[in-house]
Amino acid sequence: MTAIKCVCGFTELADETLTDHLLRVFGPDDMRGSDGQVHEEGPGLACFCGFTADAADILDEHFRTVFTPDDAIGNDGAKHGPADACDISPA
Fold first, then answer.
1. Which residues have a Cβ under 8 Å from the Cβ of 74 and sit 6 or more positions away?
2. 28-75: pLDDT as tens digits
3. Does residue 49 contact residue 33 with C-beta atoms inside 8 Å?
4. Dihedral angle at the C-alpha atoms of 36, 27, 17, 3, nearest 10 degrees?
5. pLDDT score at 4
6. How much is the pTM?
7. Tell me: the pLDDT tens digits for 62-78?
8. Given 3-state DSSP classes, what are the helix, strand and coil percentages for the chain, each rounded to the nearest 5?
């Protein structure tokens, strides 16, 4: 089994996926995006902003898109993202 990791060192666990981790480190406390709208899961694979999805992974992608900053720096000051998709070269 391949471990799914974040560039910060987080390794996906049975009860916390990489998506859960990324939403925790990028999502603001009030769940408002830069557009001023609340982006939080509502009933039936929908976001409170009005976005609807056909599958959970599409809704998750919506949240990642809304909350991930261009520099991929989380609320903790560290860079986050899938380990195989981010530049982790030393600064």
1. 8, 25, 26, 80
2. 999 998 889 999 999 999 999 999 999 999 999 999 999 999 999 999
3. yes
4. 120
5. 85
6. 0.77
7. 999 999 999 999 999 99
8. 25, 15, 60
Position 3 scores a pLDDT of 67
Give 2's DSSP letter: P
d(CA 54, CA 59): 8
Tokens 């480190």 belong to residue: 25
Q: Phi and psi for 22 in degrees, rounded to 5?
A: -65, -40
What pLDDT is attached to residue 2? 59
Q: What sign results for the dihedral spanned by CA atoms 24, 29, 30, 32?
A: negative
d(CA 53, CA 21): 21
Supply 16's token pair: 């916390």
What is the CB-side half-sphere exposure of residue 88 using CA atoms within 13 A? 14
Q: Two tokens at 44?
A: 């039936």
